[in-house]
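fold-stage: in
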Amino acid sequence: MSNASNAIARPSISAPAFERVIAFAILAMIGMGLLTWDYLSAGPNSPPLKWILPGAQFVVLAGLALVRKVPLRATIGAYTGGLLVNATVYFALWYDSLNYNGGGANIGRGILALAAILLLPIPMLIGGFIGWLVPTGRKIVSSETKAATSNGVMM
């Protein structure tokens, strides 16, 4: 086999695969949606840092979908683990707003939101590890196995 045909058969190192670009676009849109939703729901007196906390880590994590050395299923698992924590926190905030009966500040709600943001890497790591363990269904076949099965002889 000549070098010219061998160079064509090799996958490109610089260009990410099509499924990685699609995954990046979907994950980035979810992260930007979180950012936009929190920005629009924040009050005028809320600190500017609060506007970027719920979605910024998801936009950054979406960038991992373009890295070939990181399995795509691990990135999606980490994203899912982080979204589950954010969904739990926002559900607690929504449920508390339904049952609010007046009174002072709800310190427990603030501590819950702060703890979720500070401890978010833990469920992301767990989700990424679980995603890394999930099989993709693709079978990796060596050249020796291909040669043995093409001759009709299985060792």
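fold-stage: in (second)
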Amino acid sequence: MNSLFSNDETNSRSSEKHLKKLSRWEKDRTNGKWFWIFRRTSIWFVSLLMLFSLIDYFAPVEIDFSGMHLFSVLFMIGGFVLDSHTDWSQMEEIYQSASLTND
């Protein structure tokens, strides 16, 4: 028995890449929306901290981090949270539109 995702509107089967994307999404969505957003934002935030730390270590005089940089970082994090929420909604819509068929 072979299970494939198909699009009911066009009666076309999905490509292998699309199937992998949907199966990965099915696994990622099991922990919930806010955990997924938190995990994704945390990974991005740690990467950003590492980047700023490396810049401060290798070029402390050329690039000065003042208080305004903190506001920039906070706005970037807020934007990333909103982007993650939008990505979740788009992937959930794709996942919900796909139906499981058995051959």
